[in-house]
Write a structure and sequence with these properties.
Strand content: 25-35%
Largest sheet: 4 strands, antiparallel
Oligomer: single chain
Distance between the termini: 40 Å
Radius of gyration: 14 Å
Helix content: 25-40%
Number of helices: 5
Structural class: alpha+beta
Length: 139
């Protein structure tokens, strides 16, 4: 079953350290499973404390990441969020809302987890990302 080639989504996935260790066919399968999600400026995409069901990539526009006690952090095209709740099976650690109208690509938990946890290099990259986001040394 050949997945349709989606060059834009493939490029976004290849730029994310979590996915870069994966083989091209696996990345192509993930790109084919990405779901397009639109959010208007000011709309909450995920809320701190909620159950995690998807991993998100910003395709265009900007989002604000809101963590308790920190100023909002703006992130744009190519940034991503949602991996901590999925990989650690914990509630969302931050609220993310659209700072501008935003196009996102979402990967459901059932597609994200096996791809990332089933490959040692990808799992290590994911742990490094989580460590840097949570301020934890992974060494």
């Amino acid at each position: 079953d050949a997945a349709p080639v989606r060059p834009r989504e493939l490029e976004l996935l290849r730029e994310i350290p979590i996915f870069s260790p994966l083989s091209p066919p696996v990345v192509e399968q993930l790109a084919a499973r990405l779901i397009s999600v639109q959010a208007r400026a000011g709309e909450e995409i995920i809320r701190r404390g909620d159950q995690g069901d998807r991993f998100y990539i910003v395709g265009s526009g900007e989002v604000e990441v809101l963590l308790d006690g920190e100023p909002p952090r703006r992130e744009g095209t190519g940034s991503y969020f949602g991996e901590i709740a999925l990989l650690r099976d914990v509630p969302r650690t931050a609220t993310v809302r659209a700072a501008t109208d935003v196009e996102l690509f979402a990967l459901d938990r059932d597609d994200f987890l096996p791809a990332v946890t089933g490959h040692a290099g990808s799992a290590e990259a994911a742990e490094a990302v989580i460590g840097s986001r949570l301020g934890i040394s992974t060494v």
